[in-house]
Amino acid sequence: MKKLISLLLVIAVMLSTSVLSAFAISPILYDYGDVNKNGAVEVVDATLIQQHLAKLTYLTDLQFQLCDVNDDGEVNIFDASFVQQYVAKIITELPRDPISVLSVVDIKAVTRSIPDSKAVVGEEISFTVHADLNFKEDENSNLAYAFELKGITHPKIQYTEKSDSNVFSYTFPEAGTYRIVAKAYDKVYDGYDESYIVYEVAESYPYDSDFVYVEYEDKISEYALNSKPTKPENSDIDYSMLHSQSTIYNISTMTYADCYDFACVIDTKEQYDVIFKFDNDAYDDKFFEENSLVAIVSYTSCHEAKGALDCVCVENDTLYIDVNEYLPDPELGVSPTEPCCILIAKVSKSDVESVTDIDWL
């Protein structure tokens, strides 16, 4: 758990340690129940507790402590209930008073030089830990880092490194699944935070360098630091929907690359066959002389036909897409947690010939 220092302890330490007196740092007050640390206890905080219990989200050590609203040493549905009752004004105060925290180390994200969808054996890959102390930028030099790597499919592969640098480089010797734990320490005060990622490494990357391909998962760490892009002005291109399918799929029998929120630009018949694993006479060499395909596979249901895409834009070398998503009615037999959507749109090859990246709006 992240080590928290109370105000009284900090005062005692600062009186006895001259090094610490150089930093005029005030403790930060956090309300129990304020899981997202935005200064207010809201419905979203109860939702985060529920998502944590369902293992749908990752909480930092401090957030985990803030979840324990009733001080029973556990995070459970009772804590979410207390927050909901407080927001609804059924109760006027929460069981625990605010806590005073100094030197809160927060890991914002762990980014990779190569996304796991494209990581291959024998290539050096860098992992960067983005962390801060909630202080001024020049005081973040007090951070130190540690990296722990362990093979899930190859348990004997292990690697540990400690450094003042927030960049960790490693060359994977075997294809498989790896668990990487990144830790950030405050060297002056005894506080730390940690985060982990699961990283997939393949024997080889199946697509050639001209293939424009991205998974939404690749963008998550980027969006953790910056908001999603807004729609570029005057950048819409003409497109026509050729296929829109929203259904339930058995993951073990999928006929396309089993990715999450996968998008690509297909320029040749060979590329189409690689992605969708079957030959389609409608998209032959003649079709690709003037046309390209924008293909999207998403684990979220989408509106049918013309409503499937809100827009397709190109600005400089980036293709922007906006998918019109919805949660289907469970009474119709379509689960909101298991749907799969396949979209294929035709665009002019000249409109996307400069595209080297794809992003979601």
* Total of domains: 3
- Overall 3D form: globular
Helices and strands, in order, run as: HEHHHEEEEEEEEEHEEHHEEEEHE
Distance between the termini: 36 Å
Number of strands: 17
Q: Helix share of residues?
A: 10-25%
Largest sheet: 5 strands, antiparallel
The overall pLDDT average reads 76
Please report the number of helical segments: 8
Low-confidence regions: 1-25, 249-259, 330-338
**Strands across the major sheet, in which order?**
10-12-13-16-11
Give the C-alpha Rg: 24 Å
Structural class: alpha+beta
How much strand content do the residues show? 25-35%
List keywords for this structure.
361 residues, alpha+beta, Type 1 dockerin domain, Immunoglobulin-like, five-stranded antiparallel beta sheet, four-stranded antiparallel beta sheet, 17 strands, 18% helix, disordered N terminus
What's the SSE blueprint?
Blueprint: H1 7-16, E1 28-30, H2 43-53, H3 61-67, H4 77-87, E2 99-101, E3 106-112, E4 124-132, E5 143-151, E6 158-163, E7 167-171, E8 176-186, E9 191-201, E10 212-215, H5 216-225, E11 239-248, E12 262-266, H6 269-276, H7 287-290, E13 291-298, E14 309-315, E15 318-323, E16 339-348, H8 349-352, E17 357-360
Parallel strand pairs: 15-17
Antiparallel strand pairs: 1-2, 3-4, 4-7, 5-6, 5-8, 8-9, 10-12, 11-16, 12-13, 13-16, 14-15
Helix pairs in contact: 2-4
